[in-house]
Design goal:
Blueprint (H helix, E strand, L loop, with lengths): L12 H4 L22 E3 L3 H4 L6 E6 L9 H14 L4 E5 L3 H13 L2 E7 L5 H9 L3 E5 L3 H14 L3 E2 L5 H7 L1 H10 L5 E5 L4 H15 L8 E7 L4 H4 L21 H11 L2 E5 L1 H15 L5 H15 L8 E6 L7 H4 L13 H8 L2
Parallel strand pairs: 2-10, 3-4, 3-6, 4-5, 7-8, 7-10, 8-9
Antiparallel strand pairs: 1-2
Bound molecules: ligand AN7.
The site of ligand AN7 has 21 residues, from helix 4, helix 9 and helix 13.
Length: 359
């Protein structure tokens, strides 16, 4: 078969969904052609979880330009910052926001300052922030403390905050829900998503509601948010002073969009639950080894959550479940190499290689 090549001009989320976004012809669009990420059908997972007649999809946000969903919100935040005449931007970050902010800032000559928690950021994210040319400041403390400093800096100095307390971030991130509806022809029955600072679950819920209101979709999903057990303030209903988890992206004890997450949960008839590091690790390995999708540990929390609910027979027959895989597995090489896989070195002969293969 000869396939006809169709010229496709890839555009970013602002251009694609401008009628749903607070932009005008005065907004200078700073884009890296973010968004338009694939919705990948899981092949092995439903059977593994004992789910019959249920389809699970991965919204793979690791394929964004800086490797995470943050690019959707950052194109908006940076474009609006420029429109408003900002010269510099600042954020606190567990890593991905920093990488994204640094990239978009570099693209339009904005100065970028990123505050990161000491020792708890995945290496790939740190090196992105450096290489895109941001000023990287390490805080002797965790993400929540870094965000407190950022809020104070934003109030005292002429520097634009691009954390998700900046409303344009949530606006940009809601476009992921639009894409899912466009791909499926409607909203899925369930949407599972990791929760850290809770901006993304807030954004998706807003996106689903706005699309329905505009008659672009007919239904709304049940929203299922998952926090890491050691960093689960919303589940526990109190701030966690010393959040811990191997999923460093969601190592957050006092989420800025706490209220938005509760709204998404309650309005959709959903839930916010926690998953252990062990459950996250299982999901992280399963989707890489059995689905060919390499996402970072925080992303795997969504899949771990679906597994937990499947065990309780939570899902109804015929349902479609979308799991947002928020970031690329390449972000966190240290975690990826922390298992007992052995890298062996042998002589360059077939015999030597086959000896290892047959183990
Ligand atoms: C891969 O980069 O908070 O609940 O500073 O990087 O919207 O915070 C990252 C969060 C999930 C949680 N998955 O999203 C940051 C930061 C990944 C992430 C989340 C993050 P929110």
């Amino acid at each position: 078969m000869v396939l006809k090549r169709v010229p496709v001009r890839k555009i970013g989320v602002i251009e694609r969904y401008q009628e749903f976004l607070p932009v005008s012809e005065k907004t200078p669009i700073i884009s890296l052609n973010e968004g338009n990420t694939p919705l990948i059908l899981a092949e092995a997972l439903p059977a593994e979880l004992g789910l019959k007649n249920v389809r699970i999809y991965f919204k793979f946000e690791g394929l964004n330009p800086t490797g995470s969903f943050k690019d959707r919100g950052m194109t908006m935040a940076v474009s609006k910052a420029l429109e408003e005449g900002a010269k510099a931007i600042i954020c606190a970050s567990t890593g991905n926001t920093a990488a994204s902010a640094a990239a978009f800032a570099s693209r339009c000559g904005l100065k970028c300052v990123v505050l990161i928690p000491e020792g708890k950021i995945a290496k790939g994210k740190l090196l992105q922030a450096y290489r895109y040319g941001a000023k990287v400041v390490t805080i002797k403390g965790n993400f929540d403390q870094a965000l407190t400093v950022v809020k104070e800096a934003g109030a005292k100095y002429p520097i634009k905050i691009v954390n998700s307390i900046n409303p344009f971030r949530i606006e940009g991130q809601k476009t992921a829900a639009f894409e899912i509806c466009d791909d499926l022809g409607d909203a899925p029955e369930y949407h599972a998503i990791p929760v850290g600072n809770a901006g993304n679950i807030t954004a998706y819920w807003r996106g689903y509601k706005e699309y329905k209101k505009a008659n672009k979709s007919e239904t709304l999903p049940v929203m299922l948010g998952f926090q890491a057990a050691g960093s689960a303030p919303i589940v526990l209903n109190h701030v966690v002073e010393k959040p811990e988890t191997i999923a460093t992206a969601i190592r957050i004890g006092n989420p800025a969009s706490w209220k938005g997450a509760l709204e998404a949960r309650d309005e959709s008839g959903g839930l916010i639950d926690s998953v252990t590091d062990e459950e996250i690790t299982w999901a992280y390995k399963f989707i890489a080894e059995r689905e060919g999708v390499f996402a970072e540990p925080a992303s795997a929390a969504a899949v771990a959550g679906v597994k937990k609910l499947a065990k309780k027979n939570y899902f109804k027959e015929g349902a479609r479940i979308v799991c947002t895989l928020t970031g690329s597995g390449l972000k966190d090489p240290d975690f990826a190499l922390s298992f007992d896989d052995k890298i062996v070195l042998v002589e360059p002969t077939v015999d030597a290689v086959m000896k290892v293969v047959n183990g």
